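Can anyone check this?
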Amino acid sequence: MVPGPASAHVSLPERMLAKMRLLLQYAACVFAFFSVGFLIVATWTDCWMVNADDSLEVSTKCRGLWWECVTNAFDGIRTCEDYDSIFAEHSLKLVATRALMITADILAGFGFITLLLGLDCVKFLPDEPYIKVRICFVAGTTLLIAGAPGIIGSVWYAVDVYVERSSLILHNIFLGIQYKFGWSCWLAMAGSLGCFLAGAVLTCCLYIFKGIGPEKNYPCSMRKAHSTAGVSVAKSYLAPQTETAKIKRKKQLHMPATGGS
């Protein structure tokens, strides 16, 4: 079996670019995996705010989006209390952050699942590499969109906590306990930035190398065009051949009659 011209004459730079494209794809998948995990963990943990006055408190108080937990500093006993129903009146900061983080979780999860279908190692549409590149592009766009509500919600929450604490210090108001943003808020920021990074790799860097590789990586539309052209050439070759055969048959039929006369 003789290899095709495109697959037989792949240069070394093209092979290196194809490997780079594959590495970028896997790197984006890793970033997306951890980003989705960070966003989900941040949404459903309780340390968005933590008390900043460790010297005056005998317990660590953490406030999340859904409940508040208190950990005793001496015996380590932890007690948690849920907030009121979601239909109860809450602060704008809490309601908006909940909505933004849930939106980011859903979009990031959808983008990660879509990215898995577009990986070259996944046997989904193996004969359509150009469609898989498009799937990766859609996944990258979804991850970029997912990073927006995540970073808006986490930064808004952190800034609100910082402004509230700074205003109390500025006016010399001491309420017994002051809060700073905790590790859940940092985790949400990291997950959002990871979504931006994974989306940028998929939409910008990876899309540049979409035409790199052997003939199997060419768009399916080009393959169909080549196959259609081949069929048309074959038909155009067979048509004159058929007309020539008919003329020869007619000559063979008239030759005996001419000889007898």
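Reply from J.R.: I decoded it. The two ends are 57 Å apart (CA to CA).
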